[in-house]
Design brief:
The chain has 384 residues and is an alpha+beta fold. The protein folds into 2 domains: 6-155, Glutaredoxin, CATH 3.40.30.10; 166-382, q2cbj1_9rhob like domain (Jelly Rolls, Sandwich). The chain contains 8 helices and 24 strands. The chain has helices at residues 51-61, 86-91, 105-109, 139-148, 174-186, 221-234, 236-243, 343-351; strands spanning 6-7, 10-11, 21-23, 29-31, 39-44, 72-78, 96-100, 117-121, 127-132, 166-168, 190-191, 194-198, 201-205, 211-212, 214-217, 249-259, 265-269, 282-287, 292-294, 297-298, 306-307, 314-318, 323-325, 328-341. Strands 10, 11, 15, 16, 18, 19, 22 and 24 form an 8-stranded antiparallel beta sheet that branches. A 5-stranded mixed beta sheet has the order 7-6-5-8-9, covered by helices on one side. Strand 1 and strand 2 form a beta hairpin. The radius of gyration is 23 Å and the shape is elongated.
Amino acid sequence: MADSKVTGNRIVLGDSVPWFSAPLLTGGLFDLHVSAGRWVVLSFLGPSADPRTSEELNKLLQNAALFREDHMVCAVVLADRPSDVTALSEISSPSLFFLADDDGAIRRAFGAATMPRTVVLDPMLRAVADIAWDFPNGHAETVASVLRGLPTVDEQAGVPMTAPALIVPRVFSFELCDFLMQFYAEQSAAESGFQLDVDGKTKTILDGRFKRRSDVPVAAAEVRDLVRDHVVRRLVPQIERYFQFQATRMDRYVVACYDAAVGGHFFRHRDNVNAGAQHRRFALSINLNKDFDGGDIMFPEFGRRLYRPPVGGAVVFSCAALHQVVPVTRGRRFAFLAFLYGEEDVKTRLANNARLHEGETHYLGERDRLFPAEAPPLAANVAA
């Protein structure tokens, strides 16, 4: 759950709302946190057999032209499961979802247990409108007025927004970039999955609709040492200076390739939401080449701006930030990818071994050190 405040079982305007996940009536899963970066409409309706439920739904759908993946998404939360979801399936889309709140937990969290209502969230998932069915000026009319008055995501703050991402040029030399791409070419790259919690345990999933990328793990000790040396000398001090975080471990040394030939991309996600990833603090992406189009990083909560470090340069950002890699449309993007964390996070990672699905690699606690055990990080090097 995100930090939130509910007074008298009501959402407080301006505050963050609780995150939730729920099965879609048409199949699949709705994760509220992944919908950030757009205006989000949560329409809590009554029982499916109630005539007013149909009436309110029909009026809401009159605004369907506003529901677009880059602007606004709508989740309709029903109080029960209709016996026939065929009609809902026909009108569902990537920006219009239907789910049933079987046990009432979501309605209670949003103050909709006793009175159906529509809650509108900003791109950072904070409530900007809470309109009950008994609203004096009319529920559906007020909802329509609010939705039609919302600006684009890029204009939602009234000023240009920039993601809290640190771009550091010249972390890898051109020679190291070329070496790592050659290293990739000489190994057997494998399709890269993503982590998902299934029945309470973290499991690696392959789904090309969500992610298309091929990876080569850097297992050779001498190559890992070469990469580690550059990161320690040229990047870690900058992270400590600008983020005030002392990175002492680096998880998952990978040379990755997003290939336009297969539609290389990575859909919007956060890097620390499942048990196998809760130790991660900062994500690290270092571009190894520039002869490609697309493949840039976007942080949807901060608008549609794209981020691309130069060749050999790094982009570092919080693992809690929603982000995506847009599709590569020409050529291949090569990058070195890893996650940074600290000594306190080691305890979390070791404890979460018990929450990994059978077949997932367990963490042993030694291989990811950025500094030799006998030598502490050189914090003095980054003093102002």
